[in-house]
Amino acid sequence: MFTLSSAALMASGCAIVLLMPGPTNTLLAAAGLRLGFRRSAHLTAFELAGYLVSITVWGLCFTHASQSLSWLPKILRVASSLYLAWLAIRLWLTADSIETSNVKVIGPRTLFSATVLNPKAILFAGSIFPPAAFATFSIWLEAMALFAILLIPIGCAWIAIGAAPREGRLPLLRPAIIQRCASVVVALFSGSLIWALAH
C-alpha cells in the first residue's frame, strides 16, 4: 500500500515528467493539429497503454535482471532513436499536405509505438515509481492508477495545444509550420538518445 507521502512524491514526479515536451507529447499536439481535439482525445488511451507496457518491462528489468542484461538499455535506446528519426522524417514530409489531406499520420498504432519507445519510461520505472510496484501486483495497480489519473488530463492538454490553431484560437500559426516544428522536436529527441549513448 502507498503511504500518503510516497503517493504525493510519485504524483509530483510523474506530473513534472509528463508535462515536459517529448516525443509522445509532440505527437499528441500534432494529432490535435491535424484532427482536432475531439477526434484525437482517444489517443491518450494508447499513450497510457504504451507507458503501461514500457514502464512495467523496464521496472521488471531493473528489479530482476539489470545485471545480467546490462546490454539491453543500449539496444533499446538505439531502437528508440531509429524509430523517432523515422517518425520525424515522416512528419516533415507530410507537413505540406496537412491542410488538404485526410491521411492520419498520427494514429493509435503510431502513438502506442512511440510511447513504448519513449525514454521517459526509463525515468518513470527507475526513479519515480516505487521499486515495490514491480514486486507486488497490488502496489503496481495502485501506482498505475495514480499514473493514469495524471496522464489523461495532461495528454488532453497537449492535444488541446495542438488543436488551438486549427480551431481558430491561434490564427497566425499555419498547421504545416507547427507540424514541421513537431518534426524537429522529435528529431532532436532522437539525436539526444544517440548522443547520450556515445558519451
TrEMBL record:
GO terms for cellular component: plasma membrane. InterPro entries: LeuE-type. The chain crosses the membrane at residues 45-63, 75-93, 146-165, 177-198. One of its GO terms (biological process) is cysteine export across plasma membrane. It comes from the Bacteria. GO terms for molecular function: amino acid transmembrane transporter activity. It is a multi-pass membrane protein. Pfam families: LysE (PF01810). This is Threonine/homoserine/homoserine lactone efflux protein. Keywords: Cell membrane, Membrane, Transmembrane, Transmembrane helix. The keyword Chloroplast does not apply. The keyword Manganese does not apply. It is found in: Cell membrane.
